[in-house]
Amino acid sequence: MSTLENEKVAPLSNYVPKVPKEIACSIERTIEVIGGKWAFLVLRELFSGTRRFGELQRQIIGISPKSLTDTLRHLEEHGVLERMAYPTVPVTVEYTLTPKGEDLHQILKEMKLWSAKWT
Fold it and tell me: What are the residue ranges of helices labelled H in the chain?
């Protein structure tokens, strides 16, 4: 474990990063936040910008509406994305990554590079 500088940060929020005092070697917490297998594909689509539910469903081949809904809710609960509903008929709903979600981009790029190199 490594120790980082003790810095004070703003009150805890889903959008304000913490400055960890120690970094554990386990990645369990990250995997818990990212969620299941569909989360990576949802994130991939949202790295390109805001998307509607139907756009996400068309771009992610094989995902059911229930799986997409569950994945979006999970990521929203963990502060990775924001859901914006607009009062139209029918309701227009858009999904956008938060700063916390955008911060995952480099991690997923590295995973993509690893896959290209080794699989």
Answer: 28-34, 37-46, 53-59, 65-77, 99-102, 105-118
